[in-house]
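INTERNAL AUDIT FORM
Audit reference: QA-55
Scope: verify that the stored structure record matches its stored sequence.
Auditor: D.O.
Record contents follow.
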Amino acid sequence: MWHTVWSSLPELISAGIKYTIPLAVISFALGLVLALITALIRISQTKGPFLIIKAIFRFYVWLFRSTPLIVQLFIVYFGLPYLTIKGVFPDGIKLEPFTAGIIVFTLNTGAYASETIRAAIESIPKGQWEAAQAIGMTRFQTLFRIIIPQAARVSLPPLSNSFIGLVKDTSLASTITIVEMFEVSQQIAAENYQPLVMYCTVAALYAILCTILSFVQSWLEKVTTRYLKPQV
C-alpha cells in the first residue's frame, strides 16, 4: 500500500501544481473582481435605466446560486458547442477544458462572493458615509477610502472560506477532462486497482492544502485586526 502511495505522489502533486492550484487561484482572483463590481452595482442608489443593469446582475447572482456547480460545468463545456448562431457561432461555442473551468468557477465564485461583499459594505455604519460627506468627500472617495477597506476586513473570513471551498470544488473539473489531482487519482486507480488507497491519498493532499490555507487565513485575520480594540 505504502509503495502505491509514494509512487503516486509525484503525479498527484504535479497535477496539483499544474492545474488544481492555478485553477483555484485564477478563478478566485477574477471572481473577486466580478464580485466587487456586482456588489457595487447592487448597492448603487442610481435610478432610471440603471435599474435594468441591476436587474441583470441580480438575475446572474440568482442563477449561479440556484444551480449546482457541476451542472454549470456541463452546460459550458458540453452544452455550448451545440449553441449554433448563424454568422456568429456557426459551429457552436467550443472551449478548452481549462478555459471552460476558469469561466464557470469565476462566475460561480463571483455570485457567492458578491453577496459576502455586499453584506460587508452594508454592515458599515451609515454615520461614516455622512461624516465623509460632511468633510467634502464624494461618494466614490468615501467608498474606496473608508468603506471598502473596512468591508475587506469584515469579509475576509467568509471569503477565505470560499477560497478553501473553491480549492476542493476544483475536483469537479475532472468531469470536463481537466487532469487535476482527482482525475489523476482516478487514472492511477484504474491502473493499479486500488481505488481506496488512491482516493484516500488524494483526500489527504486536499486536506493538507486546505489546512495550510486555514493557517494563512488565521494569520491574515490577526494582521487585519491588530489595531482593533478588544471588546469588553
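Auditor finding: record pair retrieved intact. DSSP finds eight helices and no strands in the chain.
Action required: none
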